[in-house]
Design brief:
This protein is mostly beta strands and 293 residues long. The protein has one domain: TolB, C-terminal domain (Neuraminidase). It has 1 helix and 25 strands. The strands form 6 sheets. Strands 14, 15, 16, 17 and 18 form a 5-stranded antiparallel β-sheet that branches. The longest helix is centred in the last third of the chain and has 6 residues. It is globular, with a radius of gyration of 17 Å. 51% of the residues are buried. The model has no long low-confidence stretch (mean pLDDT 97).
């Protein structure tokens, strides 16, 4: 384990903190409480936090190039979210035939395309899938048969997408057909965790290394492009859920966490569970554009 000073960037009691994303234009780090139905933010310059209630489970968001609102994947499809009021405008539902499913993780790649996944909200099943969304709001299903979709980040070349199946404790890498917005045949990137731990959300750094939150493992793992663990960072939360680079120069790594499933004893041991954490890893993050739409 690498000893790094971890700080609490925003104290919260999120049931399922998730979906951190850096918004360069606003100078904000956005993040979510999926089960608490709130959108949170941190104004990085001032350190001031904020939040707004939403009427449904919002699971991942992204700044947009084409408008003031945020792109939002939810339990009811994908649409636009007004982060000041919490109002949501649905654009489409990719899975009307799977009423138990909701969206889960999602991220923009280096060309501005949005990749998002779904899962059975009741768990466990393999009803989850992965989708790509273009600037014109055309979308397509690119993978199917996944238990819990997570990570969904590209490498610095934009040629590979990393997809975690949290239920299978595995991360795979898929070649991206950028013209078609589809994925080629994947390969196993890494087996991660096991015995109650597994891969959750991830972030890519500028050197092409993947940082992954290990649910149940109280740590982040940094993996090289060939899948080898290069560094492990201990965290003061049992269930870290995802991470994102942000702030000036993308030099800070922000980590979301969850309180759900923890007993009273677990919460006493990990009192920062549900908060937003931050530290400087000594490497910058991969710069990503807003969603092109």
């Amino acid at each position: 384990m690498t000893e790094i000073e971890i700080r609490c960037a925003a104290k919260a009691e999120a049931q399922l903190g998730e979906g951190p994303v850096w918004d360069e234009a606003r100078g904000r780090l956005w993040w979510l409480d999926i089960k608490g139905r709130r959108v949170h933010w941190l104004d990085v310059a001032s350190g001031a936090p904020g939040s707004v209630a939403v009427a449904l489970q919002v699971t991942s968001i992204a700044p947009r190039a084409g408008g003031p609102g945020l792109l939002a994947a939810t339990e009811d499809g994908v649409g636009l979210l007004d982060p000041e009021t919490g109002a949501y405008e649905k654009r489409f539902d990719p899975e009307p035939e799977r009423p138990k499913n909701r969206a889960n993780d999602g991220n923009v790649d280096i060309r501005g395309r949005y990749w998002f996944g779904t899962m059975d909200d009741d768990q466990p099943s393999t009803a989850g899938a992965v989708y790509s969304l273009d600037a014109d709001w055309s979308w397509r299903r690119v993978l199917d048969g996944i238990s819990i979709t997570n990570t969904l980040v590209c490498d610095p070349s934009g040629e590979w997408l990393y997809v975690a199946d949290s239920g299978a404790a595995r991360i795979d890498a898929f070649p991206i057909d950028q013209a078609a917005g589809t994925l080629g045949a994947g390969r196993e990137f890494a087996l991660v965790g096991g015995d109650g731990t597994g891969p959750d959300g991830s972030a890519m750094d500028a050197e092409g290394y993947l940082w992954t939150a290990i649910w149940g493992g109280a740590r982040l793992e940094r993996r090289s492009p060939d899948g080898v663990v290069e560094r492990t960072v201990a965290l003061p939360v049992k269930n870290p859920t995802s991470c994102a680079f942000g702030g000036p120069g993308l030099n800070t790594l922000y980590v979301t966490s969850a309180r759900q499933t923890l007993s009273a004893e677990g919460l006493a041991r990990y009192p920062l569970s549900g908060s937003l954490l931050a530290f400087e890893p000594g490497v910058a993050g991969l710069a990503l554009p807003p969603f092109a739409g």
